[in-house]
Fold each of these.
Amino acid sequence: MGTGNERRRASREAGGARRKLFRSSGTAKADGLASESDEITTIHAGQGARVTTRKNAAEAADRARKNAEARYAKRHPEEVGPQVGPPRSTRNVVLIVIAAILALAVVFALGTLITSLVFPPAEQENRQNDQNLRPTASEQEMIDRQEAHDAAQEQAGVDGSVSYGNETYSLSQGEEGTWALVNAAGDVLFELEGTPAALLRSAETILIPENREDGWDVVCYVIGGHLSGVTYVVDSNGDAVGGSGSIDSAELDDTTLRVTDDSGKTTDVALV
């Protein structure tokens, strides 16, 4: 056994060792508690380690391949090309644009052609109608001849006839002795009050000088413009043109109707 001093020193060293051991144990215990750490992070669904099964084996293999490619690309960047699409030259773009324009032009031309065939322009349609309605040379000759005839004058006796357009006019006496102007079909246009001395036509106007009991007058009929009843030629004062005695002859001289009575007197009747 040692001296008293040695025993006291040994006792102090043993007590210090025991306190150090207790402090170390307390720190380890505090450091080992997860609930006392400030760096705890919660793991959610789908995070953390995944166990490879038959269902996700392909996905795991694909993920491993991509990771391997990424690691290779990181180690060998010179072998990785730029991530761009396929090259497209300016010439190809220009050719595509030209082809599109030509296609649109063809479609527009076809549409215009079909529209013009189905719906011709008004001028073309009118021209076609004019050509279809235009008479032939022989037909035009007949038309011109008829127009010249209608614009001229005709003179006939009581038993004669005059024509205008495609219609013929004549005088007819009924069973009771009454005279009337009729057309080619025999339709009565109007009846006279006296006895006709002649049948004349100046353009579209038919003139019938007639004898009455107290003298003579001139009946007129406008083709296509006569209403009904008997109409007489009048002078500038609106009085019916006529004279005494009976008519011996009547003739047209341009715009004048010249009437001669049985006494030899001549009366000129202006028609305009």
Amino acid sequence: MINYVICKQEKALKGKIVTSIVLIFSFLFLFNETEPFLPRLIVFIITLLIFGFSTSYKISSDFNNQKLFSFFGIHFFSAKLDLDFPDYISIFSASFSLNNDWSTVSALGTKERHDKVVVRFFKGNRNFTVYKTGRYEAAVQKANELSALLNVEVQDMMKE
């Protein structure tokens, strides 16, 4: 029996786009023979590290939780994740807004909104988002896995 659930954290859309573009340019820069090879290689490796970096939450049945840091899905470091044991788990829709003032995207508007389905642990009036996705089915599946693992009730606010 599995005694933990992994909740992989999604990267922001802007982050995916920017790192993809920079990765492509750094790869093409590798073939620029007018510059020394070592700096080109270093730029490419750093970009590749940023592109492949991800974080996840590992929720354990004994509630000895960890934040996992991975590179292309290969775990290389973990840190203790301090969470309160939840009274209940909730699934609901949330809208997240990001500021566009910092870049050239500001010409398209000052705010960017993303609708997501989130899974949160609730303890009293405090909460912690353990999973965020664009797909309702994925959120329900993750909440049910966590519910079975921790023997905690799931409240699906999307159905109410």
